[in-house]
Design goal:
- The structure is a homodimer of 143-residue chains.
- The first copy, chain A, is elongated and about 50 Å long.
- Chain A has helices at residues 18-27, 63-69, 103-110, and strands at residues 13-16, 30-37, 40-51, 54-59, 73-82, 87-99, 125-139.
- Chain A is an alpha+beta fold and 143 residues long.
- Chain A has a single domain (14-138), classed as Pnp Oxidase, Chain A, CATH 2.30.110.
- The first copy, chain A, has a six-stranded antiparallel β-barrel.
- The A-B interface holds A 2, 8, 10-13, 29-30, 32, 34-36, 39-45, 60, 62, 73-77, 79, 81, 83, 86-88, 90, 92, 94, 117-121, 139-140 and B 2, 8, 10-13, 29-30, 32, 34-36, 39-45, 60, 62, 73-77, 79, 81, 83, 86-88, 90, 92, 94, 117-121, 139-140.
Chain lengths: 143, 143
């Protein structure tokens, strides 16, 4: 028997309410960005921050910045797993990546306290993911 | 000062040797699959197994199976983070997803012991990621 107070999707996963998805994004320190690179899908882990309801991150020259400069569609994912209970959840954000160029906005983001763990190379550019869709799902534990 | 015995990439990250990448894939229970869905990037967490050096997973009807039926390019990522030390690593696999249709091969994969944590819906299809590229990177800790 499976009991759940939340709606279930076609895969039998519980749908996490939007407000809970946003809280999980605010608590998380890292996630994974998927985007097209030379026509192929790419996933890279990043450290993000939240600016209101949108995701922001610092980056250096490279494929992530190129994706943002081209205002490419991206997906961003955070998740958590409990291997012992065979449980897990994920939140998926879909939207477009854009560079943040306005100096006032850059100043404000610089004060958010978002620092990549990987700091051997300076990441001077900010990218914002304009979130057009936020969904979350979690595994329904059998009781 | 940064010390490292491994090559460093353009982002200042240590490159993880292939044999270590494969070992991390063999130890991991889950990862994230990125693929195109209706022209947009999508990321979904899955439980994978290894069949030799290729990644295999069970799935039901849905966008992941559709990607495999169309032999789409995919990316697969596993990672680990140590928030306190601001450390982390990731392994990225790029290749093509294909359904496994040969009954003998399906029988063999069924004996691998790969079961998705999410088991409310039966996942009767096997998908193999033909790995054309495996790379791993880790954050160099400053000493």
């Amino acid at each position: 028997m499976t009991t759940s107070a939340l709606p279930i999707d076609h895969s039998g996963l519980e749908m996490i309410p939007m407000v809970d998805c946003l809280n999980r994004l605010r608590s998380a320190r890292m996630g994974r960005l998927a985007f097209f690179s030379d026509g192929y899908p790419m996933i890279l882990p990043i450290n993000h921050g939240m600016d209101g309801d949108s995701i922001v991150f610092r980056t250096a020259q490279g494929s992530k910045l190129a994706a943002a400069e081209n205002e490419m569609p991206v997906a961003y994912e955070i998740d958590g797993t409990d291997v012992d209970r065979r449980a897990g959840w994920s939140v998926l954000v879909r939207g477009e990546a854009r560079t943040v160029d306005n100096p006032g906005e850059v100043d404000r983001l610089n004060r958010l306290g978002v620092w990549p763990f990987a700091d051997a190379v300076e990441r001077t550019h900010w990218v914002r993911i304009s979130t057009s869709e936020i969904t979350g799902r979690k595994i329904v534990l059998r009781r």
